[in-house]
Model the fold of this input.
Amino acid sequence: MKTSVSLPIVLITLGSLWFLKSTYLLPETSTLLALLLTTAGVILFIIDGFNKSSLVTGPMLMYGGAAVYLYDSAGLRLSHVLSLGMVLMGILLLLARSDRIPERSQRQRVPERQLNGDGR
Done:
């Protein structure tokens, strides 16, 4: 009877992370979180393009990464980080209401005419 491979994979992963953390090769958790959030915001723009949804979500993810980094490294107070985030979110929501900004693309959906086959 073969056993599951999940336990060895978990042990290898945890052991590797523990080794990297104990040798100071792995950045602090807050730095990793800041990098991941910022990267997610940039990737969202690349994948989804510029539209009403990505105009708000992408910069907010990037701001979240910057806010985590500034809160942890620069010692910014949480109330400052949150209030700046609220202002940024409001500005982005107002900008997204513009008619010049395209709606989210409908690439994923199939038009109804193609579903029916007869155009009704």
About this structure: Helices lie at 6-22, 29-48, 52-74, 78-96, 112-116. The radius of gyration is 22 Å. DSSP finds five helices and no strands in the chain.
